[in-house]
Design goal:
This is Germin-like protein. With 238 residues, the chain is α+β, with helices and mostly antiparallel strands. It has helices at 2-39, 202-207, 213-220, 224-234; strands at 96-101, 115-121, 126-131, 137-143, 146-151, 157-162, 167-170, 176-180, 186-192, 200-201. It has 4 helices and 10 strands; from the N terminus they run αββββββββββααα. The strands form 2 sheets. It has a 5-stranded antiparallel beta sheet with strand order 1-2-9-4-7, with no helix packed on it. A 5-stranded antiparallel beta sheet has the order 6-5-8-3-10.
Length: 238
């Protein structure tokens, strides 16, 4: 009986140890997920500012994290001033002009976790459905009337015609859009809580990225000819 008792006690201890080990593994996995999720956003600065050294800014399409800093003795007031939003950018055939502002062209923003854009839309022009994978956006209508909105993860649309002086927030990673519904060119100033928000324009992502044509036909119920027409419009390679 004593031997049986000892065996049962040992078995019970082994089960408890296994349970504790499993709990610790789950806790470590959860902690790893939280850490990875936290590090997915812009890191907090570890100094007052970091003005990038000349010629060290990456390509605008690349994620900007840390760039080599100038010596503080070389930093001037002009590093913290940007004058490029005074006028509209170059208008595309679609009637949209943008002036993006990031550490690439405004060094003072480096490591501060923010960026901006000026968007101008001619009457009837649109900023097509798109999203920013790394940032929430706040858009302020400076001039004109803009139909503006976003779609949540339940496919519900939140949209209205924005007047001068009004603002709208587009939550991080959600598809949003804008259209000038007024009679004059509209101007929007927008800010992001990341110095590299990224952008994915839905038409270009779907039809201009090389996704298999058969898949697109089945997904949208379109013919091969229709898919080909859309690909020619949005695929820069064709």
């Amino acid at each position: 009986p004593i031997q049986d008792f000892c065996i049962r006690l040992k078995t019970k201890k082994n089960k408890k140890m296994k349970a504790n080990t499993l709990f610790l593994l789950k806790a470590l996995l959860l902690l790893s997920f939280i850490v990875c999720f936290t590090l997915a956003s812009d890191p907090d600065p570890i100094q007052d500012f970091c003005i990038p050294k000349p010629n060290t800014s990456p390509h605008p399409d690349h994620v900007v994290t840390y760039l080599p800093c100038k010596n503080s003795s070389e930093v001037t007031t002009e590093d913290f001033v940007f004058s490029g939003l005074k006028t509209a950018g170059n208008f595309a055939e679609t009637g949209l002009a943008t002036v993006p502002v990031s550490p690439t062209n405004f060094p003072g923003l480096n490591t501060l976790g923010m960026s901006f854009v000026r968007a101008d839309l001619k009457p009837g022009a649109i900023n097509p459905p798109h999203y920013h994978p790394r940032a929430t956006e706040v858009a302020h209508v400076v001039k004109g009337q803009v139909y503006s909105g976003f779609v949540d993860s339940n496919s519900k649309v939140y949209a209205k015609v924005m007047e001068e002086g009004e603002m709208m927030v587009y939550p991080k990673g959600l598809v949003h859009f804008q259209m000038n519904v007024g009679d004059v060119t509209a101007t929007i100033l927008a800010g992001f809580n990341s110095q590299s928000p990224g952008v994915q324009k839905i038409p270009s992502v779907v039809f201009g990225s090389g996704i298999n044509e058969e898949l697109l036909m089945k997904a949208f119920g379109l013919s091969l000819e229709q898919i080909g027409s859309l690909k020619r419009r949005f695929d820069p390679v064709i």
